[in-house]
Design goal:
By secondary structure, the chain is mostly helical. It is built from 8 helices and 2 strands; from the N terminus they run αααααβαααβ. α4 (64-88) packs antiparallel against α5.
Length: 218
Amino acid sequence: MSDKTLTHNEAAGLANPELAGFEVHGMTRSSFILRGALAAGAVYGTSAVTPFVAQALAATGSGDVEILNFALTLEYLEADFYTVKGKELSLSGQARAYATQFGQEESEHVTALTAAIKQLGGKPVKKPKFAFPANSEGSFLALASVLENTGVGAYNGAAPSIQSKQVLAAAGSIVQIEARHAAAIDLLIGKSPTPSEGFDIPLTKAQVLAKAGPLIKA
């Protein structure tokens, strides 16, 4: 599906409402999206963000290494969110337990994807720096829900482009864990753990950028 044929529900999902009330280092969300987009392009060595995301999620013209590097960046982000941001906040009870457990599992995903990229003869992308607009347990869990559900959609969106059956199987095993993370967090914050449509909708390149791009720093 191209970006020009998004359904009403998909178009509504391009924004990240959980970030709307935050300012990061004095920046509004709209200006931070721009900064995050430019930073994403710089991290991936491209002159613009569109080619960077297209390499990872386009239906044609992308190799498994590019797809895995995009997935690796998302796993870097999630691992840092739980292991770094989670430790900065005074999380309690189940929230703290999830941050510890999920941080370990996201770090394992980083290790696995890094190894897979090297086995394919590729070079793992460098870990970028991140900024997470969460300053309380509530905002941390809200952002966790966004990140985990975005991860599920990103893997589903990339799956049709994966050429190697082994890589596809590995991605499938990771996306199942991401989905379980998402369900656990959503239940904790009182959200439905399953989509109302009965199917997970793969995320387009624009949707992934809208949700994850603002968190990437130069």
